[in-house]
Amino acid sequence: MHPHLATRPTTRRAVRPRRLSPSRAVVWVMMLVVIGASWLVAPSPASAHAMLTSTDPADGAELAEAPDAVTLTFNEPVEVPTGALRVFDADAQRVDTGLLDTGDRAVVSAALPEDLPDGGYVITYRVISDDAHPVGGVSSFTVGDGFAVDDATIGVLADGAEAGLARPLGMVLRGLGYLATLFVGGAALFAVTVARRTTDRTAARRLAVPAALAGVVVTLLGVPVQAAALTGDGFAAAVSMVTLGDVIGSSFGTSTLVRAAALVWLVVLWRPRTPPIVPAIAGLAAVASFALDGHQRTVEPTWLLMGGDLVHLVAGASWFGGLVLLADALRRRSLDDDAIEAAGMVARFSSVALVSFGLVAAGGVAMAVPLVGSIGALTGTTYGWLLVVKTAAVAVLVLVAFYNRQRLVPAITALRIPAGGSVDAPSLEGDRRVRRAGTAWQRLRRTVRLEAAVIAGVLVVTGVLVATQPASEAAGFGGLYETTAPLGNGLEIDVVVDPNEVGRNAIHLYVLDETGRPSAEVEDLMIELTSLPEGIGPIPIEPFFAGPGHWVANSDELAFAGDWQIRVVAGTDRFTELSAEVTVPVAP
Fold first, then answer.
1. Alpha-carbon torsion (235, 238, 242, 246), positive or negative
2. How many domains does the chain have?
3. If you write DSSP's letter for every residue of 220-259 in order, what string do you get?
4. How many Cα neighbours within 13 Å face the side chain of 525?
5. Is the domain of 489 the same as that of 565?
6. For residue 566, what pLDDT is reported?
7. Could you tell me if 313 and 403 lie in one domain?
8. Smallest Cα–Cα separation from 307: which of 41, 46, 48?
9. Sorting pLDDT into bands at 50, 70 and 90, what band is 211?
10. Residue 273: how many other CB atoms lie within 10 Å
């Protein structure tokens, strides 16, 4: 993705276009095979993240008799690892007797003992979406004359249902895995498509093999971290063979094992006399493994997301790995003794980079449209802003590459040096072209290093993106929008707009306490709607009381697409009001 479209060097050994060699042809054929295979094995479409649609018993339910089981229903099939659904009593002791076979992957149930005594109980759950992301939460119910579980106990159990440090650590490992794997794949492709000298291919191997080993370590470390995120039990789960087995058996585990095996294959087979095509195939397999889990497997159209992701990954690897090795090659060369060959290397990389840039752009657009959905989703979600940052960084890369192409490479290639000659030749003494070429050479080395650093940052952002809820879902364009905001006095307001599109919507407002459960502290509540793009409002609406801590407003006021501000005013007594504001991106 470094389109240095170098002009033809005006030397006796001019750089000429080369025909597509058999080895490079095999690489491109392998890319097409990988893409085609991914389409054939792509799973059926689903939404990006699983969402809980109902619990039985309902959260906060007061039951006269103990139920036989607790049941959770999700909006899509989920993977159910060991300990996915648990029930605890008021002393935080587990009381369920294990999972039941419901015959429906979207329904998860756990049996309860027949002699369950009166009292309060807490349900914690943690299942895995088809995109390999854990989804968890907590609810409670009361049986007979027993007392509800106190907030402190619920808080402890709720914390246990969270991933803690596992999720951010998983993002870091994912980003490092992208860096290592895409560099290794790009280095192997560089050895096939750009490098001509044995020294350059040796340098590619010298840098790629340690990176591959680091990639194996980072990839395998992700398994226990995923196990911790999977159960919410912290890193104690990392030593549980049962939980580790659940992780390995998931799509995350499949991707991990394929990637680790491909990287080990590359390390073992890449020897000084090995044909470059061999490590290139292993590198492509390692890069393609990232497409085996993530958002692209679960968002329609699946074939477009899977294909776009593979194109994006392979082209990004070619760009990143090629830039790093080009920077290394320029560092090892000087204008004096290698100007002609170095210019030829830049020209060859320019051709590869131009193709990579086009493929990265095409793959990125193919994925961004279904994962973002609209401008409102782009600017109103974490995923959208991460994508904006990534796009801005790529734009910087393109500008730097354009500067190199238009200014630096021509200054170098315009210098006429006889074959085997030197810039110190008497015939070139005092020639301004020599000074210009020298300055351009130094700047080219610096700008290529800058590009390599920026694209490394892009890959880290990509690692965070794949673990972030897609903008199209977070913004409610999959059917609803949900957001929370602090209300004051330790309370939080949870706002759900369904279906979050122009026209009639149900606006649900939940007042939650510090444990995340409905609070009865608020006596009355009203909202004000304001269309920010149209400048219409505030429009006052008085929701009706629907249950403890829950108000609902059925309104036709969301009549324009774009950002709407919802101001919530809650009264806790005659003299005290609390307020909060949230912004909802309403779909057309």
1. positive
2. 3
3. HHHHHHHHHHHHSSGGGGGG-HHHHHHHHTSHHHHHHHHH
4. 30
5. yes
6. 93
7. yes
8. 41
9. very high
10. 4
